[in-house]
Design a protein that fits this description.
- It is a single chain.
- With about 500 residues, the protein is an alpha/beta fold.
- It has 3 domains: about 1-125, Response regulator (Rossmann fold, 3-Layer(aba) Sandwich); about 170-310, GAF domain (Beta-Lactamase); about 330-500, Orthogonal Bundle (Hypothetical protein af1432), CATH 1.10.3210.10.
- It is built from 17 helices and 11 strands.
- The strands form 2 sheets. It has a 6-stranded antiparallel β-sheet with strand order 8-7-6-11-10-9, with helices on both faces. It has a 5-stranded parallel β-sheet with strand order 2-1-3-4-5, sandwiched between helices.
- Strand 10 and strand 11 form a beta hairpin.
- The longest helix has about 60 residues, at about 105-165.
- It binds fe (ii) ion (FE2).
- The site of fe (ii) ion has 6 residues, from loops.
Length: about 500
């Protein structure tokens, strides 16, 4: 051990020094005054110090303070011949480890030193445990943060996957408000489209609003407010309901805060997400901001992609329609055949109770039912007389060719079935697959009737156009043979009304 003795009584000091050296302590230094002791502590390291309470140049308590200031962990044993209770308490308060009252035996010194060193060891052990405990707490904190980041990343990944699967803008707007409402601080949300003149907000989707609450529909705001909400560089704006328009300023919402996020395509705002915070929340937490920011950017990109995709598909349909027109223009007798077939099919589809999606399919794909004829040579298609068996076999390929042409349009099976199966017959004698009865897709059965009727009522090189009533009779002769009886009845009903101008 390295021991410091501060004692102005030279005899006592030297006695202690000699005794401790005999006990095999590494170093025992004697200082006769406080000043030397301060220098020794500043320059060297000790394991324990014995300090006399009365020194010639300094009060022992003052020296105790100086020693603790230099080396807080150094145990200090105070020595005094006349210790008062007040002094003892003060010394302990200033960090003294023990007290030796003069006169003391050398054995007392040895025992005190032993005890003090042991206490120091325990103290160091305790300190090390505390540090370990603190390190563990910090590790747990880092782990918690890491888990929270992983959870956040997982959530972002889920949002990304969710949005990637959405195919229509309406579904997207509904999903945005739903995802925003799932945030801890939010309990309802609305999505608005911003018209080009940026004069108002048109509600497209709402989520979380109670039945008795007034969902925002059409919000009219002043130019300044719109600029504040949508202005360039503006990201997330926190507002009160009364600042954003009267439509959501109700009793229950007047004290709420709203987070408003514009959605942009190439810097131009086209939409706005409005999240209504729960009463106890004064805005979004930072992780919620990150999440919503990601959602908004992802949704904006999805809308842009959808618009581009719709534009591409629309262009593609336009090209296909032009091809159909070009095809029909070559035949003087079949001009606008596809347009008429589409009109008949759509009307009959409505009579038969088709869903709006089915009617839409008839409207789009009906026009393209004969697109496969592009792959049939002109001399066969435009042949004035009847076809040879071989030529007829070639013509019969047009539904399958048509299906291949539209394969990349991403049509539903029901939509492409219109093209492939519009020449199937109810009794199974049609082509290309010889489907029978209800095996034939429903929309194809409707187009088949419309197609046959228009063929009959159109003039051909080898025959005149049949009248409507003659054509209906011919269709009815094939009821249950070539045509679906129910669909045919609906068609006849429609065409008779159409002819009579009802
Ligand atoms: Fe056809």
């Amino acid at each position: 051990m390295r021991v410091l003795i501060v004692e102005d009584d030279v005899i006592l000091g030297e006695l202690l020094q000699e005794y401790l050296l005999r006990l095999d302590h590494e170093r025992v230094q004697l200082c006769l005054n406080g000043r030397d002791a301060c220098i020794a502590v500043a320059e060297q390291t000790f394991d324990c110090a014995f300090v006399d309470l009365r020194l010639p140049d300094m009060d022992g308590l003052r020296l105790l303070e100086r020693i603790k200031g230099e080396d807080h962990g150094l145990p200090v044993v105070m020595m005094s011949g006349y210790p008062t209770m007040e002094y003892t308490i003060e010394a302990m308060r200033k960090g003294a480890s023990d007290f030796l009252t003069k006169p003391f035996t050398l054995q007392d010194v040895a025992l005190t030193l032993q005890r003090v060193i042991k206490e120091k060891g325990l103290l160091l052990e305790n300190l090390s445990l505390q540090l370990e405990c603190q390190a563990r707490k910090e590790l747990e904190k880092v782990n918690r943060e890491l888990e929270s980041r992983v959870a956040e990343q997982t959530r972002l990944f889920q949002i990304s996957g969710d949005i990637d699967e959405i195919r229509s803008s309406d579904d997207l707007y509904n999903r945005i408000v739903q995802l925003a409402s799932n945030l801890e601080s939010v309990d309802k949300a609305s999505f608005f489209i911003v018209p080009q003149d940026k004069s108002s907000l048109l509600s497209m989707a709402n989520f979380g609003w109670e039945d008795d609450e007034f969902e925002p529909q059409h919000v009219l705001l002043g130019e300044d407010k719109m600029r504040q909400l949508l202005g360039n560089g503006c990201n997330h704006v926190l507002m009160r309901p009364n600042e954003v328009g009267v439509s959501i300023e109700t009793e229950s919402h007047s004290n709420r805060l709203l987070s408003c996020w514009p959605l942009r395509i190439r810097g131009e705002a086209f939409g706005l997400l409005m999240a209504v915070h729960k009463p106890q929340y004064r805005g979004l937490a930072s992780e919620e901001k990150r999440l919503l920011d990601f959602l908004i950017r992802k949704a904006s990109l999805a809308v842009e992609n959808m618009a581009l995709y719709e534009s591409l598909i629309s262009n593609f349909y336009g090209i296909l329609k032009s091809l159909v027109n070009a095809l029909e223009a070559k035949d003087l007798y079949t001009g606008k055949h596809s347009e008429r077939v589409t009109r008949y099919a759509v009307e009959v589809g409505r009579v038969l109770g088709c869903s709006s999606t089915q009617v839409e399919s008839l409207e789009t794909i009906g026009y393209l039912h004969d697109i496969g004829k592009i792959g049939i040579q002109d001399f066969i298609l435009n042949k004035p007389g009847s076809l040879t068996a071989e030529e007829y076999e070639i013509v019969k390929k047009h539904p399958a060719i048509g299906e291949i042409i539209v394969a990349d349009l991403g049509l539903t099976p029901e939509e492409s079935s219109i093209i492939r199966h519009h020449h199937e017959k109810w009794d199974g004698s049609g082509y290309p697959d010889g489907l029978k009865g209800e095996e034939i897709p429903f929309l194809a059965r409707i187009v088949s009737i419309a197609d046959a009727f228009d063929a009959m009522t159109s003039k051909r090189a080898y025959r005149d156009a049949m009248s409507c009533s003659e054509s209906v009779k011919e269709l009815m002769r094939n009821r249950g043979k070539q045509f679906d009886p129910d669909a045919l009845d609906a068609f006849v009903c429609f065409i008779q009304k159409d002819e009579s101008g009802q």
